[in-house]
Amino acid sequence: MVKGWMGKTHALLSVMLLCICMLIPINIFKDTVWLLQDDILFFIVGMTVLVGGALLSDLDNCQSSAGSTLGFMGSIMTIFMQSTSTIVWTLAHTKRERPPMTPHRYLWHTLFISFSLIGLFWFGIPTGDTTLFNRIKEETLEVFLQNNTALLFLIIIIFMAVLCGSNMILYRLIKWFKLPQLISYIFPVVVLIYIFTIDYSHLRILGICVGLGYLFHCIEDFFADSGVPLLWPIPIKGHMWYRCRFIVTFQTGGLMNTILDIIVLLIDIGLLAIVFLKGGSV
Question: CA 261 → CA 209, 247, 249, 250, 268, distances in Å?
Answer without folding.
Answer: 21, 21, 15, 12, 10
